[in-house]
Amino acid sequence: MSEAPEVNRGPVVTPLRVVIALCLFAPFVAMLWVASYAKTDPAFIGIPFFYWYQMLWVLLSTLLTVTAYKLWQFDQRGRKNQGGGAAK
To answer: Theoretical Cys-Cys bridge with 40: which of 5, 8, 48, 55, CB 3.0 to 4.6 Å?
Structure first.
């Protein structure tokens, strides 16, 4: 009797996927921790800290999301190449 090799196609936690998760999770933590930015000083060009900190996170969130997307594409290409090109 021949035994077929086991194929595990379930979710796999890799260091790259942990980095992706951190990139997506960081903006939520930063914005939900209101006590860290609920103040007016230091002001930046006359704008209170509360406002410019949130606007900075708009830009950072964009960069982190793009980074996570590119890392995800890299991860998927690697998985596709490991699987012999069968997965699409």
So the answer is: 48
Dihedral (CA of 62, 67, 70, 73) sign: negative
Q: Could you tell me the two tokens for 45?
A: 């060009």
Give the length of the chain: 88
Query: Which residues 6+ apart lie within 8 Å of 57 measured at CB?
Result: 27, 30, 31
Whole-angstrom Cα distance, residue 42 to residue 48?
7
CA distance 49 to 36: 10
pLDDT one-digit tens code per residue, 32-63: 998 888 888 898 999 999 999 999 999 999 99
Give the C-alpha separation, 88 to 85, whole Å. Answer: 7
